[in-house]
Amino acid sequence: MKSIISFVIRYIPRKYLQLVSHFFLRILAIFYQGNTVTCNVCGHSFRKFLPYGRKARENALCPNCLALERHRLMWLFLQRETEFFSKPLRVLHIAPELCFIDRMKHLPNLDYITGDIESPLATVKMDVHQIPFEDNSFDVVFCNHVLEHVDDDIQACREINRVLKPGGWGIIQSPVYDLEKTLEDKSIIDPAERERLFGQRDHVRKYGKDYAVRLSLSGLKVEENNFVNTLDKGLNQKHALPENEVIFLCSKG
Fold it and tell me: Whole-angstrom Cα distance, residue 234 to residue 240?
């Protein structure tokens, strides 16, 4: 199973996976019935979650809604630390994750807009370098696992800062590695070399411990929130949350 999932996510473009993968995984979910772990995004329980990743992580992917560890953590953070589920908010979700789309779209307090340059799930076709909305348009912006793919991550963050309303906030997650400084070399265009240096064939940089400082160059205010470390270990195990994952909580600068 690990090798199959690793091969699929490595070589099949994300835009195609988004269209069909959930149908196959829900069939697979029949073989994972149990109550050892519970996905707090969709509420379904299993004996364990599916493995996921190019170097497959055990107990990672919910076969019902496709939430990963980071998605379950973000959902819990929104529930416990924000007014996301109760306050009237206009939300821009860049490169929206399948596990969130329908749930957020049906929240009665949200004016929820999704945007992406190629995802078939997004309602607005847009380039994150030039977000097609006016200044001060959104209360909340989500942009997860996008910046490691784009040509100019600082410009993308400038655009997020621009469209956020005064007092607005966002969550901007990316893979962050145990490096002192972000590794980037725009002269590298060979997919195999990008995979070797940056982790994936479609990554153009590998973020280090300077991630928050780097994003703040755009004008955004970036807070490193260690919410996961405040949770009970039993809850972490129940939902299979990521260990030591920092939530990068941003606000308009």
Answer: 10
Q: Tell me: domain 70-227+243-251, CATH 3.40.630.10, correct?
A: no
**Residue for token pair 């379950």:** 72
The predicted model gives 228-252 an average pLDDT of 96
d(CA 113, CA 124): 8
Question: Domain boundaries in the chain?
Answer: 2-67, 70-227+243-251
Question: For residues 213 and 252, what is the distance between their CA atoms, to the nearest angstrom?
Answer: 15
Q: What is the pLDDT of residues 83-109, one digit of tens each?
A: 999 999 999 999 999 999 999 999 999
Q: Give CA–CA dist 140/137, Å, rounded.
A: 9
Report the distance separating Cα 222 and Cα 214, nearest Å. Answer: 9
Average pLDDT, whole number, for the chain? 91
| Burial class of residue 117, CB neighbours in 10 A (0-12, 13-18, 19+) | middle
Q: At what angle do helices 2-11 and 14-28 cross, to 10 degrees?
A: 160
Greatest Cα-to-Cα distance within the chain, rounded to the nearest angstrom: 49
59, 72 Cβ separation under 8 angstroms: no
pLDDT band at 239 (very low <50, low <70, confident <90, very high): very high
* Listed residue (63, 39, 37, 34) closest to 51, CA to CA: 63
> Which residues lie closer than 8 Å to 210 by C-beta, 6 or more apart?
180, 181, 182
Whether residue 219 contacts residue 164, with contact meaning beta carbons closer than 8 Å, is answered with no
Q: Cα(first)–Cα(last) distance of the chain, in Å?
A: 45
Least confident stretch, 133-142, 154-163, 187-196, 219-228:
187-196
